[in-house]
Amino acid sequence: MALIERHPDVEDYILEMSLPQIAARGGVADLIEEGKxxxxxxxxxxxxxxxLGELEKSTAAIGDRQLRRQIKKLEAPQFFDGPKPRRWGRVxxxxxxxxxxxxxxxxxxxxxxxxxxxxLRHAHDEALRLFDVCxxxxxxxxxxxxxxxxxxxxxxxxxxxxxxxxxxxxARIFANLDSRPRIWHVSHRIxxxxxxxxxxxxxxxxxxxxxxxxxxxxxxxxxxxxSNKWMDQAPRHRIAFDPGEVWLxxxxxxxxxxxxxxxxxxxxxxxxxxxxxxxxxRFNAQVEAVHGEMRQRDAAGDR
Length: 303
Ligand SMILES: [Fe+2]
Hints:
Elements: E1 3-5, E2 14-18, H1 19-24, H2 29-33, E3 37-41, H3 49-54, H4 65-72, H5 76-80, H6 96-105, H7 110-134, E4 140-148, E5 152-153, E6 169-176, E7 182-189, H8 190-197, H9 211-222, E8 237-241, E9 246-248, E10 254-261, E11 264-271, H10 283-299
Parallel strand pairs: 2-3
Antiparallel strand pairs: 1-8, 3-9, 4-11, 5-10, 6-9, 6-11, 7-8, 7-10
Helix pairs in contact: 8-10
């Protein structure tokens, strides 16, 4: 089980439910849309943690900047789709990204490449199965199947800003692919934070605009972004996810901070709002609803 320390000043929106419980209630899409975080109880991804743990964690030896960036934001099929390194003679992979995975991340170890590719293929298949069980009914139009194979330490608290103007719903499944705990801190939901900051930071100026502009302002100017990490004084729950543990949540609604983690699966589906349990709960609409609530409060002279 994950170790969870709940902070009394942050709403307790963390739920733990087993897969049979989730299946019996027809999934957890309604809870995710409300801004809950759901940990799948008594479930562990059964992957070859040792193989993923043996991968090189630093991309420093890769000369090409673009390739380094691609490996940091690697998509699982880029590892397992395509030929594996050949047994004899020269290693010829089909593209520079996979060649760099082999040369640097696998240190030219053919067996390790194979094991890591199989582990990621299995994790990928499981993530798709879990999507069907947990988020049945959703109609996704795009999947970004990211895996993080490099170490993450001390992120600043933030709400995800995808810099995508589109008014879509996001469904995310996360899994710890490492044999050590993955440590997250989570804090207020964006709607609660907006209410707290609204007057002091004149958030009304963002009404009717792309909500990413407001997220960017709060993440960088209020929480300090990556340059002034200590500006963020928000209370937070602390969670240590077990190896193989899986959880779901809307990372634009829930403030989060990866404090420590090695390998992880971070899958994001773009979902058509019409297929939501309640389309009015899509991110853009929730943000706009708080602006509306504040306008009403001001009109009522309640400020
Ligand atoms: Fe994030």
